[in-house]
TrEMBL record:
Gene3D superfamilies xref list: Naphthalene 1,2-dioxygenase Alpha Subunit, Chain A, domain 1 (3.90.380.10), Rieske [2Fe-2S] iron-sulphur domain (2.102.10.10)
The UniProt record lists the keyword Phosphoprotein: no
Protein name: Aromatic ring-hydroxylating dioxygenase subunit alpha
Keywords of this entry: 2Fe-2S, Aromatic hydrocarbons catabolism, Dioxygenase, Iron, Iron-sulfur, Metal-binding, NAD, Oxidoreductase
Organism: Streptomyces carpinensis
Amino acid sequence: MTLSRTPEPSADVSGYFDLERGLVDRTIFSDGALYRQELRRIFAPSWLFLAHESQFKKPGDFFTTFMGEDPVIVTMGRDRRLRAFLNACRHRGMRVCRADAGATKAFTCSYHGWSYDTSGKLINVPNGEDYPGHFEQDKWGLIEVAQLDTYKGLVFATWSPEAPPLREALGDMTWYMDAMLDRDPEGTEVVGGVHKWVLEGNWKLAAEQFASDWYHVNISHASALMVLSPTGKGPKKDIVQTPGRQYTDPLGHGAGFPTHPKSRFDDRVVHEYYDYDALRERLGDARVEGPTTTGHATIFPNFSYLPVNGSIRVWHPKGPDKMEVWAWALVDKSMPDEVKNAQRLYNLRTFGPTGIFEQDDGENWSECQATAGGFVAGGMTLNYQMGLGLEAQDGVHPGTTGRLYSDGAARGFYTRWRDLMNTPAWHEQPKAAESRTAEEDPR
């Protein structure tokens, strides 16, 4: 029951990149028209992270979030199945749920009282007798996502009925994800709620950094590394210049991780909890000595995580120059309560909204955005050449990897972004035009 919509104009973004030479036009971080195109062609068709399964324990539990800028309700129905719906009443479009999370039997719009059950069905219309005879109440339920699926506790959804299955969309990235998600046979859970904060900066600045950027660590986080080092003088040179690998996925995902045995900036209580021999038996040496350490990763387009402190987060776009960060603390289910709490506190101290690392990152992104509106500065060419030509199949880690200090995964991220931006999504297919042509030419 959808009316035809005049398509918005779309730009060919090929001219903003020369990724073979590692060059990017900075306009992609500030142009309002490109941002609108992102909502249509990046966020609408992609699998997006919504929540963690542990947030839903009984029927009626719900959590509200966003897919791009579309408000969404994720809820467990009476059949204990997770569903996600557009958080907008079918009558006038007002949100039917304005709470962050909770439990309910129905979602009722506070404007005119239309009410929906947890399966999205419209169950009550005040003054229903005043509607015409052709009003079909059962066709006016909440708009449901086209697909919803989970991967080891993480809940994803997409608006596209044509998107490949989630597991296929994650590709080889699952091998790297499992270094955080599969350490415990019982799985993972989130603790401590959701922390949210707003930053002046384009969402891609954060997503690309978590995919590819170990380069900034020793510079931007120098003071934090001094605080965390045993001597208070910072880590030793061989740890500062740590060896490592960076994974670049053709689907736009990316991950980087040290491989030095002492490159683990994790909490002492958590570190002492783990049986590393058992982890090696479960995950293999390559994962325990690589992506299980102090690494970083992004699932295209806007879900990122840090394995060592269990930080998972979404970079919600709020315009071309603003993002809202939502972050959870992820722990293994089998951890004793005191270890879970140690992980949660360490998460907050390092990558919470006031964390000693997080504040550095936010400052960097905001400063990058601060000059993006200038005529000259906003259209300058940016250099993404680090590690160019050094990626290869290393025989140890799945897929294509390069050196830890590299822009390789960022180039992969923007290759995927460029290709999607230049490809009409399922909702842009000319069905209406085809229908009109068929009427005019019945052949």
